[in-house]
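Hi again,

Forgot to attach this to my earlier email, sorry! This is the prediction with glutamine bound. I've pasted everything inline since the attachment limit keeps bouncing my files.
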Amino acid sequence: MNVGVLALQGDFREHKLMLERLGCSVQEVRLPKHLEGLSGVIFPGGESTTIGKLMVAYQMDAALKKFAASGGAIWGTCAGAILLATDIVDSNQPRLGLLEMRIRRNAFGRQVDSFEVPLEVAGLVAPFHTVFIRAPVIESVGEGVEVLSSFEGRIVVARKDRIMASSFHPELTNDSRLHQLFLEKVIGS
Ligand code: GLN
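Structure tokens for the complex follow:
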């Protein structure tokens, strides 16, 4: 399967390694032409304002909207989730607005408040070990958006059709089940 990782900023290398372990051929996506032939793209964690600005500078914003409109699947993780949202609390930063949700940046505190916790995720049989680093929280979702996981009553994974968002970093442990879920259930849907 040909999958891309948005490689403008952030920890895209870890996602790439995880996807390669699962047998994917992985394209680093920096320019619109890199999207050709891909069935899905992962947005890494990092700094959403920086990634958003670079997306605009390289015309990746329009290209990714077109990619999604033509059936491409996208999974945004942490900063990547913020870039998918329609509504970012107290921010005008660039975003794609591909998933109807209201998201709040740094909702669990600062870098020092990073934490790890096992969480139930719909579609996975055993809890998934999650890593939260200056993570956002999904405060509300629009109609038809499915909530796949919550932590202390706060939404941390959401999906509608071929767009998925998670607050935490799934690429920083050895557990590849969520990447597998993206490949099989989101891209494969
Ligand atoms: N706090 C960052 C942001 O708002 C996201 C942090 C992360 O991706 N680990 O963009």
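The mean pLDDT is 96. The chain has one domain: 2-187.

That should be everything now.

G.
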